[in-house]
Amino acid sequence: MTAQDYFVSRFNSAPQFAARAPGRLEFIGNHLDYNGGPVLGAAIDRYVTVALSLRDDAKIVLASTAQDAAVETSLDAVAPAQGAASWGNYPLGMLKVMRDAGMSANRGFNLAVANDLPIGAGLSSSAAIELATGYALAAAFGFAVDRKSIAVLGRAAENTFVGMPCGILDQGCSAFGKAGALVLIDCAANEFSTKPMPQGAHFWVFNTRKKHALIDSFYATRNKECRESAAILKNANPALPNLASATEAQAAAAAAELGTERHKRVLHVVRETARVRDTIAALDAGDIARVGKNLTASHESSRDLFENSCAELDFLVEVATVLPGVHGARLSGGGFGGAVMVLTDAAFGAAEANKVSARYAARFGNLPSVFHAQTGDGAKKL
Ligand code: GLA
After folding, report:
1. Shortest CA distance to 108 belongs to which of 49, 53, 50?
2. Is the same domain home to 175 and 239?
3. What is the spatial distance between Cα 222 and Cα 215, in angstroms, rounded to a whole number?
4. Is CB count within 10 Å lower at the N or C end of the chain?
5. Range of the domain at 345
6. What average pLDDT does range 274-300 have in this prediction?
7. 154 and 211, same structural domain?
8. Mean pLDDT, residues 292-304
């Protein structure tokens, strides 16, 4: 059902505003965004759509086709919720940061959300709902936004309202995505551009559906280890702008203070940064084999140095990378569960994907969810 139809069924009138935003894949650059590195991602052609009408009172009602519980609050009581109402933190967080940025919201609103983007599949439905809501609110309250500001606001909602210390990868890809293109983000400068997707390449996404209650705290731990490492290296190298700009020699010189674990995190960040740059050069040279090698090497670095992989993700990468038509494979996103992205040519189809799934099921007892993703267009007001 479209968000517009759902809105009508839920609120008995046609919506005044609508917007949509795509999910994303992380192509390469694992955990580089909040370290000031370069990352490559893509928007995919699956979207979260929101429909919105202003109310005459201060009430806010949020309903989603993907959630059992509607969320009700009011303009003067916007605060993060826990439990069944916590999905509302993404749209409410957007409202909060947009008001903080100067948007005057003087009326409540009804908001209906519809997804053709699977939730919890490692495709960042959270960034998509933030950006779609942001465009709808901007239209409703006459607030000027552009792709960069909407991405920055979405990240701020996530950091300050949802409480997730993410970088700008998800929101940047959802905002700047383009069909047929990868999104390149310089996360130090917050600069966004696109590069053509390699000709004939396909994405297959395998989601472990492994839900770990501690995923968010694992992510926050890695984020903290990186911040601590950056502080240690900056102490010795005051001109160092961020962790992604460090060198292995600087890390070696600070090895004692870093300790083994943080040293490994730094090596991942430094080498992954070099790999993203090499991947950009390989894309420019049309060298897809080198792109694919970098993707798989990125996974190995996440597994061994950043230590944010798990047996399920490693298995999917191992099984996929030996099949015909596969250029490379890696975990995509935060890790500790979630999804593996496989870059293939047309020789890899549903039959090969089924082989991967069958082997996974034989080993782990359940099928992964499988998704053949195409690149899609960035977030926009409808
Ligand atoms: C999640 C976060 C992103 C990024 C990736 C890891 O998707 O939301 O900001 O840090 O993990 O690269």
Report:
1. 53
2. no
3. 11
4. N
5. 202-373
6. 98
7. no
8. 98
